Amino acid sequence: MPDPLLITVAPTGAETTKEDCPQLPTTLEELVRAAQECEAAGAAMVHVHIRDDEHRPTLDLGRLTDTVAALREATDLVVQLSTGGSVHDPLDQRLKVLDAAPDSCSLTMGTTNFGDDVFSNPWPFVTDLYQLSQERQVVPEFELFDLGHVAALHRLLDKYGLPYGGKVHVDFVMGVPGGMPGTAAALVAGVAALPDAVTSWSATGIGRTTLPVLLASLAQGGHLRVGMEDVLTISRGVPVESNRQLVARAVEIGEMAQRTPMTTSEARALLGLAA
Fold first, then answer.
1. Which residue, 14, 95, 159, 237, has fewest beta-carbon neighbours within 10 Å?
2. How far is CA 211 from the centre of its chain?
């Protein structure tokens, strides 16, 4: 039987402006429509950043709660909220993201340079967020931007035990200026260093590293995250029209590797979520 492939879509992100990319889904209506299209195309989880009325990144709790509710009503996708927000969001607001009661949350395992900015994830914040996710029964996806983050994951699991649900799912975020390069060699090194407790992993290639990372992940039996948070071209010089395009491409390439898109029920089982 073909090996099921978890495809996560990250439709919006916090960096790209609506002015620069009008097709970016920034309103709740646009986000829900994009999620429905991506679910139909083969995605099983959605990684969510939200925007305010001026299309700027926000962690407003009311908007986050409404977004989770709307996505659950309109789709069967696993709803994962970003706790990273934008690089400018304060740590206390990022902890409050879990008050919106998502199925899953991102949990970045350390501070990294992020272009000209710094994505701050000090150890006390990481441990507070992890223990809060255990308490709230939210499944974390551990984001790894560098090999040092893999070492931090060993340390976290050794001290605080397994996450809610008992499964350990990680995502390598590669190609960010300041983090690990988006190369097959870097991914091989990262996977080799993972704790034995890890039960599944995926990889994300930023910008021009999207396809190299996608292919390297499939070659090693990993899963995929795609979406307009991470890349805005479908081929060199050709803008992405929708997130559905990126999911459909991942499905097509996955099928060449004899990987079939996971259903949302299969994704929930993979992540340790109740059906």
1. 237
2. 16
User: Could you tell me if 109 and 152 are in contact, meaning their C-beta atoms sit under 8 angstroms apart?
Assistant: yes
DSSP 31-82: HHHHHHHHHHHT--EEEE-EE-TTS-EE--HHHHHHHHHHHHHH---EEEE-
CA 42, CA 259: separation in Å to the nearest integer?
A: 12
> If you average pLDDT over residues 122-143, what whole number do you get?
98
Burial class (CB in 10 A: 0-12, 13-18, 19+), 62: exposed
Write the DSSP assignment of 233-274 as a string of letters: EEETTEE---HHHHHHHHHHHHHHTTEEEPPHHHHHHHHT--
Confidence of residue 2 (pLDDT cuts 50, 70, 90): low
Packing angle between helix 28-41 and helix 243-256, nearest 10 degrees? 20
DSSP state of 191: H
Contact call for residues 17 and 55 (beta carbons, < 8 A): yes
The helix/strand/coil state of 143 is: strand
C-alpha 253: how far from chain center: 19
Gap between the Cα atoms of 205 and 210, Å rounded: 4
pLDDT at 275 over 90: no
Task: Say which residues have a Cβ less than 8 Å from residue 75's Cβ, sequence separation at least 6.
Answer: 32, 35, 36, 39, 46
